[in-house]
Every structure is written in C-alpha cells, then in structure tokens.
C-alpha cells in the first residue's frame, strides 16, 4: 500500500513568522500520519458489520476524508504562498475581473469569506457554471463543492495566525494576501485547462 510522504516547504514570508510556519507544518505532518494510519486500519477493517449508526469501518471512512482533506488543503495552502502578493496577474486576473467585476470586488468578498470562516476559504473554479466562487469551509471535509477546482486557499483556523496576530484575524489575512504566489494560482488554472484537452 502506498503511503503519503509530507512535502517539504522552504517558506520565508512577510508578516507570517518562521515559528508560525514551523508549528503549522507540524499540524500538516500530523494529517499525513493520520491518513496513513487510517489507510492501514482500513485494510483489515470489518466490512461485514458496517453500519450507518456506528461501525469501525464507518468511522475510518468518515475520518479518512477529514485527514486526507487536511493534507490536501495544507499542501495547496503552502504551495500558493511565497510570492509577492499584490493584485492578481495573468489569466486569473482576467477571470476575477469577469466574474467579480474587479479585483477589488473579489478581494473584498474573499476577505469577508475568510473572516467568516472557522477553517478555510477557497477560491474555486466551477466547471459546471464556468465561474469563480469563494467558498467557506468550516472543516476540512465540510463545505466542499463537488467538482469545484481549488485555485487559492487560505487557512483561517486559529493555528495559522494566533502566534503572530492573536485575535487580529484581519491582520493575518492581509499578511496572507501580501504573500500570494499568483504564478501558482495561474498554474492551477492552466493545469485544469490542459486536463480538458483529453
């Protein structure tokens, strides 16, 4: 059985300390380890007594989505950091202007969504309505919209900012926006476009 291995990130950010990033990375490693543990237990889990009220199999499958989404969302988060921030550039800038009217309109909505979220805010492209959306996810596995393509992810759990900003969540969101790597967001858009060729 294939196991997940934590990816390495060497981030130096403006306004988000090395200590915060180090502690945040430990949480990510924990999700990797728990996902591997769940997958190992699923190999021998009793499928004959699976039950919707309670069974070991049900609990493992439920927590598999929480742990694995914890891995994936953190990887997307770390990967879209390390840039110079500022207004969006490239194809994502055109998409934002088309769907939100302006970068400022999108940014106001994204920040409001991040302030409102207990867990994650995700800028997604929906291939069904062909529009961008800012989605709120209070938990790793709650609030996900099926088939939506995640493009920009901000972690709004307290562990992402409390060391540096205490209760000043807005300060953290501003710092995050100053470190967005728009090239990575554009790469994700282009990757989805390339997939559509097949």
TrEMBL record:
Keywords: Metal-binding, Oxidoreductase
Coiled coil: none
Phylogenetic classification of the source organism: Bacteria, Bacillati, Bacillota, Clostridia, Thermoanaerobacterales
Name the UniProt record assigns to this protein: superoxide dismutase
Gene3D superfamilies attached to this UniProt entry: Fe,Mn superoxide dismutase (SOD) domain, Iron/manganese superoxide dismutase, C-terminal domain
One GO MF term: superoxide dismutase activity
EC number: 1.15.1.1
InterPro entries for the chain: Fe/Mn_Superoxide_Dismutase (IPR050265), Mn/Fe_SOD (IPR001189), Mn/Fe_SOD_C (IPR019832), Mn/Fe_SOD_N_sf (IPR036324), SOD_C_sf (IPR036314)
The keyword Metal-binding is annotated on this UniProt entry: yes
